[in-house]
Write a structure and sequence with these properties.
heterodimer; A: 6-stranded mixed beta sheet; 5-stranded antiparallel beta sheet; B: mainly beta; 4-stranded antiparallel beta sheet
Chain lengths: ~110, ~120
Amino acid sequence: SQQGEEDPQALSIQEGENATMNCSYKTSINNLQWYRQNSGRGLVHLILIRSNEREKHSGRLRVTLDTSKKSSSLLITASRAADTASYFCATVQGYNTDKLIFGTGTRLQVFP
Amino acid sequence: DTEVTQTPKHLVMGMTNKKSLKCEQHMGHRAMYWYKQKAKKPPELMFVYSYEKLSINESVPSRFSPECPNSSLLNLHLHALQPEDSALYLCASSQASGLAGFEQYFGPGTRLTVT
């Protein structure tokens, strides 16, 4: 399987704490994307980082990419109860494809 | 308008029924996708349409038949499904396909139950 792995599988924190999720993938990539999914709903795109970038920020989100280790991390700072969701990394493998390969996902619960 | 709409939201069908799922976007995107998602699992790609032509079929059984009537619409025709096909079916779209790997915009999904 080309599917990436995420850890932890589940994470529970209090509001105001930071949440870190990690993603590992198996082959060389064009870019890596992070998505959020609220329970049973569609996915929302959060951030895209290209293979020649090492770090990217968007609001309370910070994403890092280490292509030598084939890994990425998503940091959510000052978490809120509304951040409760599943988070998936997804990679575009190759340079002329629309095919997104999703990781296994991290279920984040933020308690008020 | 950055919305992808899907109808119906819920669908219950018997194994002998024929039904269709519909997806629509008005963002001018030229790539559209169908995904299947089982509970607590990541989405799995089924089909990709690029410029209204089927570009990727992930070895999906023929009881699932996609159709792209125009650049804004994507259908998934269902026939003789099995109970294990019960899942959340997600539609997505993105800008012109290939090369740059654009982000995808997802609809809310259709929750399908096959009885």
